């Protein structure tokens, strides 16, 4: 190994990668053994190296990018382009085959996992949650997403909480909790936690294999039982299933340099990024790097042309079963046109301008209810919002579907249903995350919110806009249904709630973004709103913001 072999600037993140490699390998085994249709959401922020490497190993990367072949030539190209100008990011991104999740911003992985599972009854969605991102507000809210997951019509989510102990420079909260307190927390969230821990590879392999098998057997049992009961089984007693969750505790930077220049690295926060940073100028570091790389015995893994040997690929799923090849991660391939009835059926008669009063969003509710009815069998349309569907005058939806709910139902409750396709939770982050992934896996939807409070997802919509902009430049990514906002209770009609509910700034925020991707509509009356909604629901690869009144 010579300095000329090393990039002038080393970028990337090693600390999380060993755990992701481990999980990817074991998911491959169960996918192939059980013939699963699976998707994985990779939450740790800069876990790109592991996911890129594994998609290259399973062949999906080369099928997506034929110039990155599965041999030494392709391997070199893969390495050169990583975290390099004009190349691919250091995190999981649109360029990564098999991904519906942008790993550059933390906290949304579990919401995205559930969004992919809704109305996908045969899909298993594994979700790797980094212990750093587990400290974020959106992730904390996401743990209860199974309250809205119907085991009859939806797929399963398997959270894998990876506790490697550290963020960039600090310990993580969950990794330092006493074991009994962590267990109580996860059980309080409604999960059955399974624990795998250690630093001896063969032991951890055996324990993780056993935990995965146990978890998937449990998922099979839940789905078989609930589906045998049928969609109409009462949920009034709140006896929902307790879904499995895996807690994997392994060292940060596992199998990397134990120490560098006398300072501990493996198992500490120092392993987060590049553990050997002076390899071009420091001969001792260069020698240490070579020793480290040779410790993986590459001559036992690759032939003389750099192709993975058969035993390396023995557990790798073939064709579209591979995690990097799932059609659900390229949802435009699965998207069907939304059936939208002729608008004349819902339009307000206009005999004379300005002569009659109507509540525009109440009129729109009739159209949305018809769409919900017409998609009842195929189940590929949802409306999400933070407890404001009725307030925003969209109550007609409840004549054809209920609000998704798996907990107890009391006699005084209204419109709650185990199989409901309106989703209300008082977390705009969850609404956004669920819907983003629902759309990216090929379905349609609408996010209804008060105008002043949609700001809570400013950062999330930034990332989604970037995703769409990047996806448009990738010929292999098929266009997906647009992310559509309906913002009502808007600034000009907040005489009831007053100043706290007045803020039209989301329009400013969105219009700062790429004009290739964003659109804002300000329909002044009911019929214009019908026409605009028809347009945005048919569109692809946009973020559409529709601001409309709900008052007469």
From TrEMBL:
<dbReference type="Pfam" id="PF03894">
    <property type="entry name" value="XFP"/>
</dbReference>
<dbReference type="Pfam" id="PF09364">
    <property type="entry name" value="XFP_N"/>
</dbReference>
<dbReference type="InterPro" id="IPR019790">
    <property type="entry name" value="Xul5P/Fru6P_PKetolase_CS"/>
</dbReference>
<dbReference type="InterPro" id="IPR005593">
    <property type="entry name" value="Xul5P/Fru6P_PKetolase"/>
</dbReference>
<dbReference type="InterPro" id="IPR018970">
    <property type="entry name" value="Xul5P/Fru6P_PKetolase_N"/>
</dbReference>
<protein>
    <submittedName>
        <fullName>Phosphoketolase</fullName>
    </submittedName>
</protein>
<dbReference type="InterPro" id="IPR029061">
    <property type="entry name" value="THDP-binding"/>
</dbReference>
<dbReference type="InterPro" id="IPR019789">
    <property type="entry name" value="Xul5P/Fru6P_PKetolase_ThDP_BS"/>
</dbReference>
<feature type="domain" description="Xylulose 5-phosphate/Fructose 6-phosphate phosphoketolase N-terminal">
    <location>
        <begin position="2"/>
        <end position="333"/>
    </location>
</feature>
